[in-house]
Structures are given as structure tokens and as C-alpha cells.
Amino acid sequence: MIMKAIIVAVIFLLTFTKAFSQGNLNIVTVDIGNFWQAYDSITATEDSASQYGYINKLFIEKGSPGLRAIMKVKGYTAKSYVDAINQYPLFWNSIRENTLKANSFAKEIETEVSKLRVIYPDLKPASIFFTIGALETGGTFLEDKVLIGSEIALADRNVVTREFPSTSGNLTSHFKSDPIDIVVFTNIHEYVHTQQKTTERTNLLAQTVFEGVAEFVAVTATGLTSTLPAISYGKENEDRVRERFSEEMHNLHTGFWFYNNNSNEFNTRDLGYYVGFAICEKYYQQAHDKKLALKEMIELDYGIETELSRFVDRSGYFTSSVAELEKKFEKSRPTVTRISQFKSKDRKVSPSLTTITVEFSTEMDDRHRNFELGPLGMGNIMRVKKFNGFSQDKKSVSFEVELKPNHHYQLVIGSNFRSKNGIALKPYLIDFTTSSK
Fold this sequence. Notes:
Elements: H1 2-15, E1 19-22, E2 25-28, H2 30-42, H3 48-60, H4 65-74, H5 78-87, H6 89-99, H7 106-119, E3 127-131, E4 139-142, E5 145-149, H8 150-153, H9 169-176, H10 183-195, H11 204-222, H12 229-236, H13 238-248, H14 271-285, H15 290-298, H16 305-315, H17 322-332, E6 336-339, E7 355-360, E8 371-372, E9 384-390, E10 396-401, E11 408-413, E12 428-433
Parallel strand pairs: 2-3, 3-5
Antiparallel strand pairs: 1-2, 4-5, 6-7, 7-10, 8-11, 9-10, 11-12
Protein name: DUF2268 domain-containing protein
Organism: Rufibacter tibetensis
């Protein structure tokens, strides 16, 4: 009996200690076997030091480049994994069998990647890693690596979610949609991302088109229909979604449009995927050369605002140009109206001043704030000693400072301060000099 158990264990480990090569495609699943080996050791002890030792030695240190990449992208640590294992034992037991099916999708993924290569002959090679995360993503990417969080991407409606907190409601609903059924499509979406220019995307519009391109190209290549609820909802409510998005498209924050459960009038998350998809769809429909249109989408540089604006304007999705909508947006941004204790550029501020109050043009969201260096840098920074918080009406904020005489101070009230409806503040420079006494 013992010998039989050893043989089974050896077969299990061999199954998950190699990369599967399908044609030119490299699919790596080694992390899954390593994770379950670590999991079994962790759940066999309550000693936290031993648990951290097992996750590090048996999983993280033996991890594939894909594991290292997904940990980097999502900020996973040994603690992330140990906490998730200890908090959700029923979930992990229910997902285990599904994660062991990762290899069975290799041939189908290769077939769909081949279709992608047909419509985009300049396709660059990328490796696919079926790894295990800590419940933050079912699929992402880094450089030339597709990163599949198998604990999410290979789940189905039968996994146990009753241990999850209410804040994880999106996972519960996502699992009910049987994500394992679309894991091949998920891989193609992320594969498209590995082909795109991943320059910094500085506003909502750039992120929207970036995600929309991946979704649209994946649909076009595979012939499959996107199963994202946001896309079906967006098509049914196109006018209002477009109107609302056009008001916020230049925002520096993605708000409810991506990756969270923030409340919104549509009661639907991730609607940015729909808007991006719709922009690409319109661009493609009116293009005479369809293959060239796809090439332009994939190779678009989101870091060059003129390129992005030209692409969106040519799609004809919005009734106004990107530039016109930007002007309207800038007028809608909240501003700092004044500092209660002194005027900007004041050169005789008392060094005995201990509290500064900043007043805003509208009600602000008290969950967000940031301060930045002024043009003169660290030597002139006014340090915030204590953040007192927002006023009851959320139209001002105060904080404590400690000032020296005869000193020039600067501090920028940053754009992470945002209005109640999520619009980024126009940054404001606090600039003053203290008197001698």
C-alpha cells in the first residue's frame, strides 16, 4: 500500500514538472504540482514558521518564470499564499481537481494561437504559464509571458465560495459562470496583450482601448463570442454607457470601469471592456483592409496621445473628438479653491502655524488622497506631520505641519484626491515662505 502511494505521488509530480510544447507554443504547468505539494505540507501543521518554510521551499523557490512574474504583477508574497490557504480550506479542496486539468487545454490553445497568427502574421512567440495565485487574477501577462491564475481561471460553479468575505462577491458570481469553459479564450486575450506596446497608460481611455483591443482581436481570431457580462450589457445600453464614459474618458483613475466592484448607475463592473471593444469593432467594420486594421490595433502605442486620439476618432464611436471631450473634462475637474490660513505665494506665513486647511470646489471622496514634491524638490518640502482628515461636508481637508522660520515651503495636493464621482483633482501647488518669527 505504501509503495502504491509512492508510485502515485511520483506520477503526479512527473505530470507537473515539465513544459508542454505544442508546435511553437510553450505551455508550462510545473507550478501547479509544486503548489499542491506545498499545500499538503502546510495543511498538515499549524506551526506558522513551518507553513512559511513549506510555501517558500516547495513552491516559490521551485517556481517557474511565470510564477515569479505573476507574483511581481500582483504583489504576491509568501504571506499571500499562506493566508489564502488557511482562510479558505473548503475552496482549495474544491478547486484542486480542476487545476490538474491544465495540461488538457494545451492542444486547443495552440489551435487558437495558430488562428491568431493567421490574422496577425507578425505574431511574436510567448510562453503560457498555468500557475497558482492568491485569488487576485485569473489571467494577466508580463512581457512575453501569459500568466494564468489557475485557481480562478479553472474554477467552475461547483467550487465552494461560502468562506469568502462579502467583498469577494465578484469571485462568487464569476465562478458561477464556469470560467474553466472559457480558459482557452482567456489565454488568447492575454496572448494578444503580450503583442501590444505596454507603455504607460495614463488615463481611462488608454486602458480602455488597451483591453478592448485584446478582447476584440481574441474574438476575431477565434470566432468565439465574448462572455464578459459587461459586453452584453453595454450593447443593450450603448447610448448611456457611451455618454457617461465620454465624460470620464480622460480621468486619471479607472474608477468603476475596471477591476473593482465600485457602485455605479449601471450596476455592472468592468464596462471599460465593452467601450474598448465597441471602439475596435467600429474601427474594424469601416476599415477597407481588415488585416491592416487589426495590425494597427495591436501595434498602437498607448503612450503617444496623438496616436491614441487618432485611432479613437477614426473609429467614429464618439460624436465629439477626443480633443473636444478632453476640454470638457478639464472644466469638470475639481480644484483647490483656497488655503484657509494664507494665500498662495505668501512670504510672511507665521512659523508657529500648526494646521493647514485646504478647501475644494466640490465634495470629495474621502477614501483617496496623495501629496507630491513641489518643483523645488526635497529641500523645500512641507512635511505633513498628521493627516486630520476631511470635513463633515467633504469639501475641505486639514493636516498638521511643523514649520521653521525663514524657510520656503512647497507641497503639491495631488490628483489622487478625487471628487465624489471619482474625477481626479487638478493638482495644486502650496507655495509659501515663513517669516522670521
